[in-house]
Amino acid sequence: MIGLEAMANFTVIAKEGEARVGVLQTAHGRVETPVFMPVGTQGSVKALDPEDLRTAGAQIILGNTYHLNLRPTSELIKQLGGLHQFMGWDGPILTDSGGFQAFSLGDMIAHGIRKVPNSSNKSSLDNPTLKPTLAKISEEGVQFTSHIDGSKHLLTPERSIEIQLNLGSDIVLVLDELLSPMHNRDYARQSLERTHRWELRSLKYFQEHVADSINPNAQIFGIVQGVYDKKIRQAEAKWVAEQDFDGISIGGSMGTSEFYNGDDDVTAETISIDWAASKAIAKTVEWVVPFLPASWPRHVLGIGEIQNLFDCVQRGADMFDCVAATRRARNGSLYISPKQGGKVQNKYTLLISKAEYKMDAKPIDQLCSCYTCQHFTRAYLRHLYLAKELLYYRLASIHNVYFLSNLMSQMREAIQNQELQKLKKEWTD
RNA sequence: UCCUCUGUAGCUCAACGGUAGAGCAGGUCGCUGUUAACGACAAGGUUGUAGGUUCGAAUCCUACCGGAGGAG
């Protein structure tokens, strides 16, 4: 039954400064925010099944338009009842539009850069090397060359939404283009105008087709792009805020480069790549939030390192997705709390491969109540990791997902008690 | 007992008589809308031993020691 009294999809229930606790209603249940969303690119949060996800505290997960449409195709998934049914996850799903792949398979390769620059890849920013890419952008959309079989696929804004509706996504994202720190201002301006057109095309297609999709109560989020430039970001935020979206994703949060500088207390002379990696993301959130409707959930795309979570929540962000938790887990990097040695410098992680854990009978984190920490030692996990035992990937991923879910839960409680600053201090001092 | 082959990094193997290298293991790191169970870096050596030939030997010769195979 279509709700006559169009219930708000998002309700803010507590605030501390700009930070807020909210409840997001989706077609597959409610989500308490601020929330961390594990990434399940290909219809699976790598190494975890839906039950693992639940016990690890995941409320909502992310799926991917580009990957799922290449394989097994969104039409197949639709025929099998949609992504929820296909993968056995009955909770909320947010789907990315494929915009990130246009970037990561395109200019990110061409420019030889990483999403978030750091000192170790500064040289590549200084010396771009042009390499063959798998994605080309035009007004029509993104022309992909499949990384699987080399076949060509045109992803238009309309097609992106069609795919996401086929998947039965609860939160659909408009197709956007990310800007690389290597792009010049001319390119940036043209790209942003094109992204506006893509967003409107996405929205139109969504409005015309969602009612007939397998998830008629799906929502659609706009995306605010822009570079690391205060004025541009705010103008973009203003534009997106005027459109008929259910929420917003803040995209292109990727540090910065010497080309852009919109911050008052940073000059081209003092800016550094390291500074950018740690601060630019939070600054971007800070800049755009005042221009966004308070009733819109605010999602920061692709962000999820612990310091960034604190910085962005504090500035009014509600939702985060990030591959870091699960990728780090698989690569031997496991989250630890401050009392266990976690700090900004080590990104709140330990490297389980280190020789010092060879005989360590303690859990990863003695304060953690995840399944892994309740049952297994560092020594055992190190052994599994070095032996490349499959069990390692599951146990490590359970821990990292639980750890971030639990951290977000602590943040929600802290905000309700006006103690977010105190909690942040405990983590960052 | 004889014949053949073979001894190089912890392991498996490269290197025309001309600066001994690689993969793996082990070590230290990196990872932010996943092309990522991935990637980077450093370390690691009296080339089985003892002689000889040579400007120069892991490489050629001799002996010994260790291993594999064959014949008896």
**Percent of residues in beta strands:** 15-25%
From the spread of the alpha carbons, the general shape counts as globular
Helix proportion: 25-40%
Question: How many structural domains does the protein architecture include?
Answer: 2
Strand count, sense and closure of the main sheet?
Answer: 8 strands, parallel
- Arrangement of strands in the largest sheet: 4-14-13-12-11-10-6-5
- Provide the CATH architecture of the largest domain: Alpha-Beta Barrel
Spans of at least 5 consecutive residues with low confidence: 1-5, 119-128, 256-275
Evaluate the radius of gyration: 21 Å
In total, the number of strands is 16
Q: Please count the helical segments.
A: 16
SSE-based structural type: alpha/beta
> CATH superfamily assignment of the largest domain?
Queuine tRNA-ribosyltransferase-like
What is the CA–CA distance across the termini? Answer: 51 Å
Question: According to CATH, what is the topology of the largest domain?
Answer: TIM Barrel
Reading off the top of the CATH hierarchy, the class of the largest domain is best stated as Alpha Beta
Mean pLDDT across the residues is 90
Structure in a nutshell:
The protein is an alpha/beta fold and about 425 residues long. It has helices at about 50-55, 65-70, 75-80, 85, 100-110, 120-125, 155-165, 185-210, 230-240, 275-290, 305-315, 325-330, 370-375, 380-385, 390-415, 420-429, and strands spanning about 10-15, 20-25, 30-35, 35-40, 60-65, 95, 135, 140-145, 150-155, 170-175, 220-225, 245-250, 300, 320, 335, 350. Residues about 1-5, about 120-130 and about 255-275 have low confidence and may be disordered.
